[in-house]
Design brief:
Blueprint: H1 15-30, H2 35-45, E1 50-59, E2 62-71, E3 74-81
Antiparallel strand pairs: 1-2, 2-3
Amino acid sequence: PKTGAIVKTEKITDTDELSDAADQKAAMAKAKTSLVAATDAAVKENAGFRAVSVFPDLRDGHAIAEVTLLQGTTAKKVTEKLD
C-alpha cells in the first residue's frame, strides 16, 4: 500500500518470536532516538549503501538499532545507539 496503512496483522504464537518482540519493545521503551533517525545516520556514515532492515535491541542495558546495509551484492550490519 502507498499509504503505509496496516493491511494485515497476525498473532505471534512462536515462543522465540514472542521473546524477540518483548526484547524489541524493551529497547524502544529506552530509546531516545527513532529507528528512522538511526537508519538515516547509518546510511549517512556508509556512503553508497542502502538500508534494507533495522531492528531495535538491548545491548548491555542500552537501546541500539541493528541496521543491515546493502551496496550491490555487499551486505554489512552496523549498530547505532538509540539512547
